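Consider the tokenized backbone below.
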């Protein structure tokens, strides 16, 4: 059985790490370069950096900040926010990213996934899906969760896999920041349908939640932010607890 991954997430706004609840009420959570170095030392398996207002503000990801973060870590590094072209991806990979995460631009132009996977390889193309449940369906949202679409989450996930995405970062907007547990049912449905890895995001509050998303949810990785940023859960302790529960971890 492959080891499961624990991934801290740096949500970036104006050069600082921020965190909110249900994508709203953001508060400062620290310097991203310092946090990245800390997580690398703590034994995080990967790091995700999301420039959460880049698309809304119609600008590119903060490449200089990506470069500074990349210098401080020795773990796989995924960057997202405002990516809309092959040139954007090239710049971020040159800045030190190992993978890129696309969301809004892929919804707008699904062929972008094909082009990116064809040029850079599926292994470095992550498609982020921000999903919210309403009117009896899970619907995809773009622009940092601000814009609902008519896309069904399950159908879109299947399409992005078919187009060459190597991984899906699934964020439940309903669970985001609540610390009440991940969207295990939705994650499990995707895991049963797809063959590519799924990173579950939104709702992680304690070790039991991570255990549930890896077992009942079938996730390959679990991402969290505030519980790590504010030292509510320590990554080494979390990994030890999961390992003790027979969930394979890289210790």
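A designed sequence for it:
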């Amino acid at each position: 059985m492959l080891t499961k991954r624990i991934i801290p997430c740096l949500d970036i706004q104006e050069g600082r790490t921020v965190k909110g609840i249900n994508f709203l009420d953001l508060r400062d959570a620290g310097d991203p370069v310092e946090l990245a170095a800390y997580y690398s030392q703590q034994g995080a398996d990967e790091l995700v950096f999301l420039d959460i207002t880049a698309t809304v503000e119609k600008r590119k990801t903060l490449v200089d900040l990506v470069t500074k973060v990349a210098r401080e870590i020795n773990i796989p590094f995924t960057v997202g926010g405002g990516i809309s072209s092959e040139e954007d991806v090239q710049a971020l990979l040159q800045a030190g990213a190992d993978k890129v995460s696309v969301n809004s631009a892929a919804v707008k132009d699904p062929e972008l996934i094909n082009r990116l996977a064809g040029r850079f390889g599926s292994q470095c193309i992550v498609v982020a899906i921000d999903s919210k449940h309403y009117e009896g369906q899970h619907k995809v949202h773009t622009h940092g969760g601000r814009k609902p679409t008519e896309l069904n989450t399950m159908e879109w996930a299947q399409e992005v896999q078919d187009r060459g995405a190597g991984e899906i970062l699934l964020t439940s907007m309903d669970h985001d920041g609540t610390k009440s547990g991940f969207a295990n049912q939705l994650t499990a449905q995707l895991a049963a349908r797809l063959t590519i890895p799924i990173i579950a995001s939104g709702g992680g509050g304690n070790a039991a939640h991570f255990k549930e998303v890896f077992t009942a949810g079938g996730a390959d990785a679990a991402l969290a932010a505030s519980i790590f940023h504010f030292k509510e859960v320590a990554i080494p302790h979390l990994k030890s607890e999961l390992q003790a529960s027979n969930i394979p971890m890289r210790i």
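The mean pLDDT is 92.
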